[in-house]
Automatic annotation (TrEMBL):
Annotated protein name in UniProt: Putative pterin-4-alpha-carbinolamine dehydratase
UniProtKB keywords: Lyase
HAMAP family documented for this protein: Pterin_4_alpha
Residues in coiled coil: none
An example molecular function term from Gene Ontology annotations: 4-alpha-hydroxytetrahydrobiopterin dehydratase activity
Keyword Protein transport: no
Enzymatic reactions: (4aS,6R)-4a-hydroxy-L-erythro-5,6,7,8-tetrahydrobiopterin = (6R)-L-erythro-6,7-dihydrobiopterin + H2O
Source organism phylogeny: Bacteria, Pseudomonadati, Pseudomonadota, Gammaproteobacteria, Pseudomonadales
PANTHER family: PTERIN-4-ALPHA-CARBINOLAMINE DEHYDRATASE-RELATED
Family: Belongs to the pterin-4-alpha-carbinolamine dehydratase family.
Pfam families: Pterin_4a
Enzyme Commission numbers on file: 4.2.1.96
Domain of life: Bacteria
């Protein structure tokens, strides 16, 4: 199984398929700590990352933002004192694409390299 965090996003197209139930059940195994949320009928991946303070939360936010810019695929980021909520979905598809799982795995990789509340 290729490491999802090392994969790259494909360009978002409005006619691209959302992940199937089978793909979803397989892909979520690689990002087990992420929650699947459904908001206004749109399926999303969401996870809260804890930090010691706002400065660490902001540094992580900026690192995720840089990865998003590099891949041309962008999250919703809620940056608060001590935590960042990251939400991935494909706007054009109004749902989940493999890109979202790639970027969730990439977000975990960024977090594992960043100072967190756990350290
Ligand atoms: C023009 C630009 O590349 C597109 O609008 C991209 C930008 N980033 C994106 N990010 C996400 N999450 N979904 C999209 O559909 C999307 N589209």
């Amino acid at each position: 199984m290729t490491d999802l965090s090392q994969a790259h996003c494909e360009a978002c197209r409005t006619d691209a398929p959302r992940v199937s139930e089978t793909e979803l059940s397989e892909l979520i195994k690689q990002i087990p700590d992420w929650n699947i949320e459904i908001r206004n009928g749109v399926m999303q991946l969401e996870k809260i990352f804890p930090f010691k303070n706002f400065a660490q939360a902001l540094a992580f936010t900026n690192a995720v933002a840089a990865a998003a810019e590099a891949e041309g695929h962008h999250p919703a980021l809620l940056t608060e004192w001590g935590r960042v909520t990251v939400t991935w979905w494909s706007h054009k598809l109004k749902g989940l694409h493999r890109n979202d799982f790639i970027m969730a795995a990439r977000t975990d990789a960024i977090a594992s390299a960043a100072p967190t509340a756990a350290q």
